[in-house]
User: What shape does this take?
Amino acid sequence: MRKLIAAGIALVALAAAPAEAADLAVKPKEPAFTVYNWTGFYVGIQGGTGWSSGVKQTDARPFNSGSYQPNGGVIGGTVGYNAQFGRIVLGLEADGSGSWIKGNTIGTDPASGNCGGIVPRCYSDLQSLETVRVRAGITMDNVLPYLTGGLAVGSLHGQEGDVAANGAFGAGSSTVVGWTAGFGVEAMFNQRWSMKVEYLYVDFGNHAIFNDNVGGVIFPESIKYTTNILRVGINYRFGY
Assistant: This one.
């Protein structure tokens, strides 16, 4: 009996061996991913925080609100392309974000006095932010530190006061165009996915945003607007 059982086990093992070999031939083990190539298109999502070191509202009365510091957040999407030449990576990236970087002041310039309103108030809100930028970096395998800069476009809302009886009042929004520059670091964690941390300085200059009504006289009100953006993103890469 023992001999019969042993013979049966041996026959099963012999029968299974060719099947296992065939299965290995059909499904070879995938080699480890060791070569990192940054060339190709990618899409992603990104978001973070924004803050300003000084926003100012002015008009020709003359009026100056004094400097104030809006802050808030941004969230949006990214599309881009990289080309790798040895260790050098060059790219073009565009992104669009909804934002709520906003703030207000009662007016702090001694010569101008307070802003209009029963509760004095000058106010700004960057409601969207889009950039088109070049990127240049030096890769260290799966890690890419880079510099970036280019065009910035935003939708900027401004306001002063509340009603005519309480001094200057007005509100409106305008598309503003400026520039941006910054730096970041991106890291691949497999063939398709990467994560980045990025800082951008954005300068929209000084633009007329809305009209103030001051005792029936209209004065275009300008906002000088700069902001800092710190954000993280996740990208999905094509072409591997």
